[in-house]
Amino acid sequence: MATFQLNNPNAPGNPASYSLGTPSCSGNNQICTIEAPNSGGVPTISSALKDEMLQALNTRTSTTNVKLKA
Questions:
Q1: Strand 38-39, strand 42-43: pairing
Q2: Of 22, 23, 51, 52, which has the most beta carbons under 10 Å away?
Q3: Which of helix, strand or coil describes residue 12?
Q4: If you average pLDDT over every residue of the chain, what do you get?
Q5: What's the first-to-final CA gap in the chain, in angstroms?
Q6: Rg (CA), the chain
Q7: Which DSSP state fits 63?
């Protein structure tokens, strides 16, 4: 598993919206980073991870694999 930073908050389900790295996460309850398998420098976003992303956004709470901007 690797940490990927979300660079395009308009397309969090698109692996091309991420880059490897751990930024400081400040903002407004959007996705900051995800933990996912590394596939050539982009994350592999499974159905389970998409569900976890939605859960984090809906509850405004970070999860095991999804860190929100606080």
A1: antiparallel
A2: 52
A3: coil
A4: 92
A5: 23
A6: 11
A7: -
